[in-house]
Fold this sequence. Notes:
heterodimer, A: 15 helices, 2 strands, 60% helix, globular, B: alpha/beta, Elongation Factor Tu (Ef-tu), domain 3, Rossmann fold, Ubiquitin-like (UB roll), 3 domains, six-stranded antiparallel β-sheet, five-stranded parallel β-sheet, 30% strand, binds flavin-adenine dinucleotide, binds FE2/S2 (inorganic) cluster
Amino acid sequence: MAAPTPLSAGDIEELGEELDRLRAEVLASRGEDDARYIRRVIAAQRGLEAGGRLVMFASLLPPAWLAGTAMLTLAKILENMEIGHNVLHGQWDWMRDPGIHSTTWEWDSASPAAQWKYSHNYVHHTYTNVLGRDRDLGYSMLRVAPEQPWRPVYLAQPLYNLALAVVFEWGIALYDVEIERAWRREKDLDETLSHLGGALEKVARQGLKDYVVFPLLAGPAFLPVFLGNLTANVARNVWAHSVIFCGHFPDGTRTFTEEEIEGESRGEWYLRQLLGSANISGPPALHLLTGNLSHQIEHHLFPDLPSNRYAQIAPRVRALCERFGLPYTTGTLPRQTANVWGRILRLALPGPTRSRTGETSPEPVIPARAA
Amino acid sequence: MLAIRAFLGAVAGSMTSPLRPGDFRATINPLWSRHRLSGRVEEISPETSDTSTIVVRPGLGWRGGLAGQHVGVDVSIDGVWHRRTFSLSSPPGRPDGLIAITVKARPDGAVSRHIVHALRPGQTVRLGHPSGRFVLPDELPDRLLFVTAGSGITPVMSMLRHLAEGRRMPDVFLAHSARNASEVIFGEELRRIAAQFPNVRLYEHHTRPAGGRPAARLTMAALSAICTDIPERMAWVCGPLGMVDDAESYWRESGISDRLLTERFHSVVSPGGGQGGRVRFIRSGRETTATADVSLLAAGEEAGVLMPSGCQMGVCHSCLVPLVDGRVRDLRTGEEYGAPGDLIQTCVSAPARDVDIDL
Ligand SMILES: Cc1cc2nc3c(=O)[nH]c(=O)nc-3n(C[C@H](O)[C@H](O)[C@H](O)COP(=O)(O)OP(=O)(O)OC[C@H]3O[C@@H](n4cnc5c(N)ncnc54)[C@H](O)[C@@H]3O)c2cc1C
Ligand code: FES
C-alpha cells in the first residue's frame, strides 16, 4: 500500500501480528459471561419493547404516551444496534444458539437481513473507505471526502442528508437493492427486482405492525399510538444515521484509492481499517446505545468479535497506535457529529481536492513518528 | 374455530415481526417456546460412580416418545451449545410429565462429563424430538430377550419400566454386563423388578467382580448356554460395539436377523484416505480447513456454522446437507463419494479434498 504512513513494511507486519494476537486472545476467552451478556441485552430489549407498546395503549394520558414512546425508541435502538447489527455480523455465532445466530436472525429494519449482510459485512467491511468500492451510503450519495470530484447535485447534500437521516432504514434498504448498478447493467435485472421485492415485503411487514396493527389494537388511542411508533422509528433512524456517520467521516479518518489496496497484506488491511475509522468517546450507556459502534476502530479491526469486548480491548488498540505513531481518532458524540456536518456543508461547495493526509485527528495521540 | 385460531396466530405474528411470538415467550421462560423445544433440569441423581440420571421437565411442544427411543439434547458449556443423543430411561407418559436420561461420563467426553458433573437443577437444556426404531412392537411378543452392557441399559430400562406398569409382564430374559455389582446402572431397580415378576429373569455378568477374578466379556455363545431359548425370543441388544457386532453375526448365522434389534451409542471411524481440505459453507459464508479424519459436522461447528445434527453416528440422517462441490469420504467405510447435489451425512463424512456445502 502506497499509503503515506510513517511505517515501514516491517512495522506494518508487526502491527498485524500484534492485532492477530489480540484477536486470538479474545477468541480463546469467549465464554459464559459473554453469552449471558447478549442474552440479557436481548431480554431487556424485548421487555422494553413489550412494555413500551403496552404503556402506549394508555396514550390518551400524555405521560403514558411519552413514557411508552421513549421505551419503544430505546428498544428499537437496541434492537438495531447492539443486537441486530452485531448478531448479523456473526459476533455471537460461536455460541451455536439457533436463536442468536447470523444465519437465522431477522431484524426490525427495512433491509432484509440477507441483503444487508452482503452489502455491509462483505462490501463495506472489505472495502472500507476505498473510494469507488466502499458502497457505504455516504460515499455514493454524498461528497464526504475532498477527493471525491464535486458535482452540482452536492449543493443540496446538507438537505438531502437531513432527509436521509429521517428515513434512514428505508434509504439503506433501497440502496442495498443496488438499482443504480442494475441501471449500469452491472447487476442482473431479475436479481435486482427480486431484491426490491424482498425489501418492499419487509417494509410492508414492519409498517403493518407499527402503523396498522398496534394502532388498531389501541382502539380510541389509534392516533397517539400511530404517532408514538412513528416517533420511535424516526428517532431510531436519526440516531443510527448520526452514529454511523461518526464512524468513518470525521476529520482524522482518511480514504483510499483502489490502487492503494492492490495486493494489500493482512497488516495493511488492519492499517486501513485503523486509519479509516473513528470512535466516539463517552460513558458505557453511550457505547451500548451505539451498538458499540462507538468503538468503530475496534469493530473494523475485528468485525466478528463480540461487541461487549470492544471496550475491553480499546485501551490496548490505542496503546498499539501510540507505539506505532498512528492516529487513534476519537471524540464526543456532539463534537464528532458537528464535525461531520461541518464537512458535509463544506464539501457541498466545490473545492479542495487536495489530499487530507496532512490533517491530524481531533485528538491526536502523538505526532506521527519520523519514518 | 380453526379459522379463528389461524387469524389470531397471524395477528400475533404481525405483532412480533420479525420475531415470532414464541421468541417473546421464550425470553420469559425457555419452556414456553414451541419451535425451539427446551427442558428444565429438575433433578440429578447419581446411579453409579460415573453415571447420573437427569430428570427434565420438557417445555411446550414436547410430543412424547416410545420406550427405547432416543432424543437429541443440547447443553450449554462455557456459553456454547453442544448436542449429543441420549436414550430416554424414563417410561413414556409419566403422570408428572417428566422425562429422564441417564448419562455415563466418558473419561475424555466433553459433554457427558459436563452433564454428570457440572449440570445443575434449574438449568435449561435444549431438546429434540424422540426418534429411533429400538422400541417394543405394537403387539408384544410372548418372550423377550434384552442383552445390554454398561450404559446400554438405558433404552432397555425405559422398556422394562413401561412393561412393569402394564397389565401383563411377558417372559423377559435380561442379560446385563458390567464391571461389578455396584457398577450396574439401575442395579437395585433391576433386581427388584426381577424379584417382583416371576417371569422376569435377570442375568448379571461381572467382568471385574469385587474380590473375584476378572472374567471374560459376555458373548452370545456364552449366553446361549444360559438362556437356552434365544431363537424363540425377540431380542434387543445395546452395548459396546463389540457386543453389538457379536450379536448381529450370531442372529445372522441363525438366519433370524428379523428377530433382532440393535442400538449403538457410537461408531467406529476408519482413519486415513484423502488429505482433507478447505471446507466452504456457501450460504453462511464461512470457510475452514479440515483434515481427512474430522467430520464435516465437527469442522462446521468449530467454525460457528449452525449444523443440523442428531445421533452424530450416521444413523438418523438429521445432518443431511447438499454437497455443492468436491468429494467426501465416509468415515465408517473409508469410501470416497459425492457428486454435486448429493445429500451427505456430515456427521460421518470428512472432506476428501476441498469441498463446498450448501449451508
Ligand atoms: C442412539 C444413541 C443413544 C445414546 N444413548 C446414550 C445414553 O443413554 N447414555 C449415555 O451415556 N450415552 C448415550 N449415547 C452416547 C452419547 O450420545 C455420547 O456419544 C456420549 O455421551 C459421549 O459424548 P461426549 O461428548 O462425552 O464424548 P466426546 O467428547 O464426543 O468423545 C470423547 C471420546 O469418547 C469416545 N466415545 C464417544 N461415545 C462413546 C461411547 N458411547 N462408547 C465409547 N466411547 C465413546 C469418542 O470416540 C471419543 O474418543 C447415545 C448415543 C446414541 C447415538
Ligand atoms: S447426525 Fe444422525 S446421521 Fe448424522
